């Protein structure tokens, strides 16, 4: 029976323990994972030194310097870079020093070179120096014993520099995983990673082996030592022979592609079981990428990935890369999962978890789902995987979806996939003044709220408004330049946001209202905006006025209703009931309707 993706991840990671450790020269440790706490072994810097170019002097000699009473000091020496600290200036003297030079035994501060005037062998100061001494004390940058890299963290270039600066010679790191990589399938033409590739086009029935070279690059980027074993035919004896040899190889992990589905030629899982493997995870409830196998032969991991290239690569990112990083000692093995807004509606629903190749960009992030499914087309320019839980309904443009960002470093230890957040349906309400726009919004909100539907409303005040009286505390704060000011009272809150209404796009407006609703624990399903028309979004016309050419989604509104102020109560209620019913139908049954 197929298991869900998060369960598969948990089962694998629960049984993945870091490999052994080794000591390596610190200059070769960049990108490796620390096996023990790496601390500063000597203070950085380990001697007092000058913070800038200037002159070493005594404070008491220059404290009274002024334009009317300039101070003259004799230049009697200089600090030589790389030399040990010298004797230094006596009282009434100065020594020249360069940035980083060792402070001599005498003198208690450095005067910047631009603050003095040189006259032969004398220095002239016409102003007292600032309180700063411009001297870097021993250990001021990094104190002795400071933790530089915690166990399970990658030794990054900055940390490497600090380790070198404090005199570390060797560090203890986890061993790099050794991976043996092979592909299965009678239909595969050997790739350049295996043997020279015959020139295309190939005869019908044959396809190039793209999985091996692509995965080899990914494995190397993950810090693994990679060896390839070519293409293995689907013939049972040949497959058993190659996998049997792989089980005896020095590899920590054996990865194969293809042969893990349910066809007659898909023998990889059973062959591993026949060779004594203990299954950890079998088929996954994932589309694409469901065919999968992970097991242990002794302490050696054996992994079977689907042969379809896009599915193979997606499953690698979701399950195999985290496994390899944990074997390499990494504490954080999952890349960031952020919500990003869909640029276009996603009309497909599925009873299985979906992993969709996507391109994410912008701030706040937007995501475009790539076409291609399990093939390679979707992965060509993708830098993310959109992850949609089983049962996710079709989503409108603007919906926020969990997105695994593939070009960012890992920042968490667990794979937790939040649900997608549908975008609110935005409906404009327009009409002449006094036609009953607010009455319409009020009536629709009351009817939908009775059904448990969270509705937001925006009131457009064309001539401006005052949410608080001039001179009040909130008014003073806004006028002082505070962008948001929250007025919090015992029964309600008002958020004042200062902005140019001409620059307030529907996307920014929607984002602000959504954020406010979610902060209150009531994600919106509908947003009604008074005085609003926007291309591509539905709007209701109240009264006889019609939009000008090119306004709205078309020349006609989605619905036109008579001015409510002119209607008897029963007729007005009927209009509101009908409008609320139509919107309710959109929200419940047709999420991609207008």
Tell me what the structure shows.
- The chain has 594 residues and is an alpha/beta fold.
- It has 11 helices and 33 strands.
- A 6-stranded mixed sheet has the order 7-4-6-5-9-8.
- The two termini are 40 Å apart.
Summarize the structure.
The protein has 594 residues and is of the alpha/beta class. The protein is built from eleven helices and 33 strands. Helix 1 (5-14) packs parallel to helix 7 and helix 8 (437-449) crosses helix 11 (569-589).
Secondary structure blueprint with pairings:
Blueprint: H1 5-14, E1 21-25, E2 38-39, E3 49-50, E4 54-57, H2 59-62, E5 71-78, E6 93-97, E7 109-112, E8 117-119, E9 122-125, E10 135-136, E11 147-149, H3 157-165, E12 170-174, E13 178-184, E14 188-189, E15 207-208, H4 211-221, E16 225-232, H5 236-247, E17 253-257, H6 268-274, E18 278-281, E19 286-287, E20 293-297, E21 300-305, H7 309-327, E22 337-342, E23 353-361, E24 366-369, E25 384-388, E26 400-405, E27 425-430, H8 437-449, E28 455-458, H9 473-480, E29 484-488, E30 493-497, H10 506-519, E31 526-530, E32 539-542, E33 559-561, H11 569-589
Parallel strand pairs: 5-6, 13-16, 13-17, 14-15, 17-21, 19-23, 22-24, 27-31, 27-32, 28-31, 32-33
Antiparallel strand pairs: 1-12, 2-11, 3-10, 4-6, 4-7, 5-9, 8-9, 18-20, 20-21, 22-26, 23-24, 23-25, 25-26, 29-30
């Amino acid at each position: 029976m197929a298991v869900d993706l998060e369960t598969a991840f948990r089962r694998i990671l629960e049984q993945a323990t870091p490999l052994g450790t080794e000591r390596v020269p610190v200059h070769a440790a960049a990108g490796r994972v620390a096996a023990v706490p790496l601390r500063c072994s000597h203070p950085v810097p380990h001697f007092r030194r000058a913070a800038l170019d200037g002159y070493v002097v005594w404070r008491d000699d220059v404290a009274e310097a002024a334009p009317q009473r300039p101070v003259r000091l004799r230049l009697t020496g200089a600090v030589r870079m790389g030399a040990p600290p010298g004797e230094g200036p006596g009282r009434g003297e100065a020594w020249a020093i360069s940035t980083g030079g060792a402070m001599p035994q005498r003198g208690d501060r450095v005067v910047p070179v631009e603050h003095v005037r040189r006259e032969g062998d004398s220095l002239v100061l016409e102003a007292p120096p600032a309180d700063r001494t411009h001297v870097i004390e021993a250990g001021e940058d990094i104190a002795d014993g400071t933790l530089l890299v915690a166990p399970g963290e990658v030794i990054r270039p900055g940390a490497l520099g600090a380790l070198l600066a404090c005199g570390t010679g060797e560090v203890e790191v986890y061993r790099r995983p050794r991976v043996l990589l092979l592909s299965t399938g009678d239909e595969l033409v050997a790739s350049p990673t295996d043997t020279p590739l015959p020139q295309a086009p190939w005869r019908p029935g044959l396809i190039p082996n793209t999985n091996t070279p692509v995965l080899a690059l990914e494995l190397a980027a993950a810090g693994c030592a990679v060896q390839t074993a070519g293409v293995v035919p689907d013939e049972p004896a040949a497959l058993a022979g190659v996998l049997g040899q792989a089980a005896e190889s020095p590899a920590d992990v054996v990865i194969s592609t293809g042969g893990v589905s349910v066809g007659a030629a898909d023998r990889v899982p059973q062959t591993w079981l026949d060779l004594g493997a203990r299954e950890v995870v079998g088929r996954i409830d994932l589309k694409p990428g469901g065919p999968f196998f992970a097991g242990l032969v002794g302490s050696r991991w054996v992994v079977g990935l689907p042969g379809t290239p896009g599915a193979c690569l997606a499953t690698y990112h979701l399950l195999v890369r985290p496994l390899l990083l944990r074997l390499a000692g990494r504490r954080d093995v999952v890349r960031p999962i952020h919500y990003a807004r869909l640029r276009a509606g996603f009309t497909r629903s599925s009873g299985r978890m979906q992993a969709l190749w996507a391109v994410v960009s912008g701030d706040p992030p937007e995501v475009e789902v790539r076409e291609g499914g399990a093939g390679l087309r979707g992965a060509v320019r993708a830098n993310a995987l959109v992850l949609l839980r089983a049962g996710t309904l079709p989503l409108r443009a603007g919906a926020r979806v969990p997105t695994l960002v593939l070009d960012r470093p890992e920042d968490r230890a667990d794979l937790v996939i939040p649900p997608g957040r549908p975008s609110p349906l935005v409906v404009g309400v327009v009409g002449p003044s006094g036609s009953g726009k607010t009455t319409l919004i009020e009536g629709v909100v009351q009817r939908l709220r009775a059904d448990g539907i969270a509705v937001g409303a925006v009131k457009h005040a064309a001539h401006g408004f005052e949410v608080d009286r001039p001179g009040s505390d909130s008014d003073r704060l806004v006028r002082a330049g505070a962008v948001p000011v929250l007025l919090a009272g015992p029964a309600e809150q008002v958020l004042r946001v200062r902005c140019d209404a001409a620059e307030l796009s529907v996307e920014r407006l929607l984002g602000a209202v959504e954020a406010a609703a979610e902060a209150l624990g009531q994600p919106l399903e509908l947003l009604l905006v008074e005085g609003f028309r926007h291309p591509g979004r539905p709007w209701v016309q109240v009264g006889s006025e019609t939009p000008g050419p090119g306004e709205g989604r078309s020349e006609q509104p989605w619905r036109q209703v008579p001015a409510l102020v002119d209607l008897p109560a029963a007729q007005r209620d009927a209009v509101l009931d009908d409008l609320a019913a139509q919107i309710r139908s959109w929200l419940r049954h047709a999420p991609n309707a207008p």
